[in-house]
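COMPLEX REQUEST
Ligand: glutamic acid
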Amino acid sequence: MLREDLTFVGTCDIAGLVRGKGFPSTELPARRKSGIGWTHSNLMQTCFGPILDTPFGTAGDLMIVPDPSAEVHVDFRDGSAPEHFFLGDVRNTDGSPWECCVRAFLRRAIEALNEAAGLELLAAIEQEFIFTGVEDVPGHAYSLSAFRRQGVFGEMLMAAIRAAGVHPDSFLAEYGPRQFEMTVAPNAALPAADAAVIAREMARGAAFRLENRAIFSPMPVADGSGNGVHIHFSLHDASGAPVTRDPNGPMELSAVAAHFAAGVLRHLPALCAVTAPSPVSYMRLTPNRWAPTVADLKLQDRGAALRICPVFDAVDEEQRDAQFNLEFRVCDATASPYMALGALIFAGADGIRKRLALPPSEATLPISLTAALDLMDASAAMKSWFGPVFFEAYLRHKRSEAAYVADLPAEELCARYADVY
Ligand code: GLU
Ligand code: MG
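STATUS: Structure written out below.
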């Protein structure tokens, strides 16, 4: 078969989808600088495809410039076209970052944390999904039988993640029917977000090659199990030393980690508009799903918004400090990992800057995307993190999406999102 090697450059946009363009790989040297052409209204493409509302109209040119540190070249060795793509930055035509670039948003958050405290955040992102290549049978949860029945999918997925330059940590059959979970090793925030996008795409890529799907929608069916995205994180000083733990602090949190957590809890109801950014996200954030419903911080509790994770088999304080981490559970795969991680870091950095104390009571989380967007709209802090242009564009995008599906019954709503994610 006559074939030409192709490369794709894209970004995981505010719809949480990787979009961009491909070109012959022979053009890569030139494309490393000029990237691919993009336009402002691409940001307004909803997850369903159409642009329903846009402040940008049809005007304007941008480029997505590939980041050499986010290159994926994975040959599944089954005769299919290799996965060759770069994640990149959306830039103005003069090369400066575009104010609505999701990776620029995360970089600004990283900088805000550095300015507030001279700290860096490391993250490891855990993602749940449905693999359609197995039947729904009783006894699936965590079972060896389910692990076996997925056949070679798990091996393909772990190999692809590794070949993509990401360190795989675990793969398991989760609680729900046909539900699986994958985790990758911790990394600095930007590569951790890249890794989450890459792992998602490798799961989709492996499933696709098996003529199946990996479905990451937070609620694939209305009465089923939710698919969460859990962000584990820890704080580190300029020398790389962990500073999240203090054995004498509340729940062993260091003062700076307690401020960070307080910032996240303070902003959390509004933050949901970014970390749980679809109507179906709010079907997951309901009682008895091992998913959060209030802005709480709990020790080793998987129902909490912020969970303090256990330390396993540590022999000394140094090992305890190194393992100690928190888990942010109010996130799902309809969010771009750059946006979710960026919002989390901005909120935590604000908590540190204002030396916020842990709240005495728990705010409830919004129960719909529309309610979350209203909270975001009223948040001066979030507006300052986004900047005015991105803030308006984000709200308009998400409001138009919410309105588009507002009249769908729950089952159909879930099906529409499961088709996309
Ligand atoms: N599936 C749950 C969620 O939607 C999480 C289950 C777990 O604790 O791993 O977040
Ligand atoms: Mg899980």
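REMARKS: The CA atoms of residues 227 and 366 lie 18 Å apart. The chain has a mean pLDDT of 97.
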